[in-house]
Specification:
The protein is mostly beta strands. It has one domain: 7 Propeller (Methylamine Dehydrogenase, Chain H). 2% of the residues lie in helices and 50% in strands. A nine-stranded antiparallel sheet has the order 28-29-30-31-3-4-34-33-32, with no helix packed on it. Strands 1-2-10-9-8-7 form a six-stranded antiparallel sheet. Strands 11, 12, 13, 14 and 15 form a five-stranded antiparallel sheet that branches. Strand 13 and strand 14 form a beta hairpin. It is globular, with a radius of gyration of 20 Å. The two termini are 28 Å apart. The N terminus is likely disordered.
C-alpha cells in the first residue's frame, strides 16, 4: 500500500560496549528522557501479545493470479502440493500507542534469536516506537522491551550484537532536515538510553539501514543519499548522493541501493565504495512509496511496487526472474492498494508483501543462494496466506523458521514455518 511517509530499516552493529544477545542478567530499569520512554518490564508489555497455535492455509483460489500451467511474463498459480509447507500462527502483537494514538508497524529485522520491529505514525505527526522480541523459544516469542519516541517516526530497524540503528524522520528543528539515523544500545534484549546518539542526514526521511563489517549503511529518500558511518565512534566514511534511495543491503562484497522514480539499483564495491554499475528495473514508480530488496547468490530480489518482484544480477543488471503482482481488479481492490512493498527469502521460499492483498508465498526450483547471478530463476507462485482478518501488510521478514509480518495498524503476526 502506498505510504505517506518513507519507511526505513533500523540497523544494528557488531557487539559493542553493551554486548550480548541473551537475557542472562536481570532487566534494566525503565528509562526515559525528553524524547524517548523505554519500558523493560515484561509484565507491563505482556498485554500487547496474544498467543495462538493456529494452522495457516495457503490458498491459490481467488488471489489475483490465473489458474494455469502456462509460463511467460504473467505469473500463474500452478498445481503445486503445499502440504509439506506447514505454517502456524504463534502470536499476534497489537501496536503500541502514544497518548492514545495508535502507531503502525513498518518493518521487521530478525537476527539470531532477536527480532526488532519499528513503528511510525500515519499522517503529518511524528511519533514512533521500537519493540525487541526474544524468539529463542519458537513456540512462544516474548516481547522484552519497548521504546516510544516523541517527535520521530521510526521507519525501519535491524539489529546485531549490542546496538540498534534506527532510520527516522524527526520534527526536531535542531537538524537541517527531518532524516536522521539514531544509534541505541542494548543489554541483552533490553533497550537502554546510555550513549545513544543521532546523525543528521539529508531529505525528509531516513529509509533504510544495514550493518556489515562494523559499518552502518543508511539511506535517505527523495533528494537523499547513501551514508556510511561507524556506529561506535561516529565518523562518516562515505556519502553518495542518490535520488529516491529507498533501501540498502550488503552481501557478496557488494553494497546495493534500491532507488525509485524511476526504479533502479546502484551497486558499489563494499571495500572501496567504488561504483560497480547502475541498473534499471520495472516498477518502483510510485512517489513516496516503500520498496525493499534482499541479496542472495549475487542477485537482488526487489520488491518493485507495481512491478511485483524483480530479480536482477548485481554484476550485470540482467533480469533473471520476476513475480508479477496480483491483479487488483480480480481482487476487487484499487490498483494503488496492491503494491509489492517487501520481499523476504530463505532457501527456496519467497514471502511477498502485497499491501492490502496480503502476504503471498512463492517457491524457487533451487535454493536462491545456490544459483548463479546470471542464472534464470524459475519461481512458482504457491498462493496467499489465509488469516482470519484482511489487513494491509507493510513488511515481511523470514529467518530460521520464523515469518514475522508487519500489518500496519494491525500490528504483528508471528508465524512458525516448517
Amino acid at each position: 500500500m502506498r505510504m505517506v511517509k518513507f519507511v526505513v530499516p533500523f540497523i544494528c552493529g557488531v557487539a559493542l560496549i553493551h554486548a550480548g544477545c541473551g537475557d542472562a542478567t536481570a532487566p534494566p530499569a525503565d528509562q526515559s528522557n525528553d524524547r524517548i520512554g523505554i519500558t523493560n518490564d515484561e509484565a507491563a508489555l505482556a498485554s500487547r501479545v496474544t498467543y495462538h497455535d493456529d494452522d495457516i492455509t495457503i490458498t491459490g483460489s481467488g488471489v489475483g493470479y490465473p489458474l494455469s500451467s502456462a509460463s511467460g511474463p504473467v505469473m500463474s498459480i500452478q498445481a503445486v502440493n503445499t502440504s509439506s509447507l506447514k505454517l502456524k500462527l504463534k502470536a499476534e502483537v497489537s501496536p503500541p500507542t502514544i497518548d492514545g494514538k495508535l502507531l503502525q508497524a513498518t518493518s521487521v529485522s530478525i537476527v539470531g534469536d532477536r527480532a526488532v520491529v519499528s513503528y511510525n505514525m500515519r499522517g503529518e505527526e511524528y511519533l514512533g516506537a521500537i519493540d525487541v522480541f526474544d524468539i529463542s523459544n519458537k513456540n512462544k516469542p516474548e516481547l522484552k522491551s519497548e521504546a516510544l519516541f516523541q517527535n520521530a517516526d521510526i521507519n525501519s530497524v535491524s539489529t546485531l550484537g549490542g546496538l540498534v540503528i534506527a532510520a527516522e524522520a524527526t520534527g526536531d528543528a535542531g537538524f537541517e532536515a527531518p532524516a536522521v539515523a539514531e544509534v541505541l544500545f542494548l543489554i541483552g534484549n533490553y533497550l537502554i538510553l546510555n550513549d545513544n546518539w543521532r546523525l543528521g542526514l539529508t531529505s525528509y526521511a531516513a529509509t533504510s539501514s544495514v550493518v556489515s563489517g562494523g559499518r552502518a549503511y543508511v539511506t535517505s529518500g527523495d533528494a537523499g543519499a547513501l551514508v556510511v558511518f561507524d556506529p561506535r565512534d561516529h565518523p562518516v566514511f562515505a556519502s553518495v548522493d542518490l535520488h529516491d534511495a529507498r533501501w540498502v543491503d550488503v552481501g557478496d562484497g557488494r553494497v546495493v541501493v534500491l532507488q525509485g522514480t524511476p526504479g533502479q539499483i546502484s551497486v558499489f564495491d563494499e571495500s572501496t565504495m567504488d561504483p560497480v554499475g547502475t541498473f534499471s528495473f520495472t516498477g518502483a514508480d510510485i512517489p513516496e512509496s516503500k520498496s525493499t530488496l534482499e541479496l542472495a547468490g549475487g542477485k537482488a530480489f526487489i520488491a518493485a511496487g507495481t512491478g511485483g518482484v524483480q530479480v536482477l544480477s548485481t554484476s550485470t543488471g540482467t533480469v533473471v526472474g520476476s513475480v508479477a503482482r496480483p491483479d487488483p481488479a480480480s481482487l476487487g481492490l484499487a490498483p494503488e492498494a496492491v503494491v509489492t512493498n517487501a520481499v523476504a527469502l530463505d532457501d527456496d521460499l519467497l514471502f511477498i508483501s502485497n499491501g492490502e492483498a496480503g502476504v503471498y508465498v512463492a517457491q524457487g526450483s533451487q535454493n536462491f543462494k545456490d544459483t548463479g547471478s546470471e542464472a534464470q530463476q524459475t519461481i512458482t507462485m504457491l498462493g496467499r496466506l489465509q488469516f482470519g482478518t484482511a489487513e494491509s501488510v507493510n513488511h515481511v521478514a523470514f529467518k530460521d523458521d520464523y515469518l514475522i509480518i508487519a500489518a500496519g495498524l494491525g500490528g504483528l503476526k508471528i508465524v512458525k514455518v516448517n
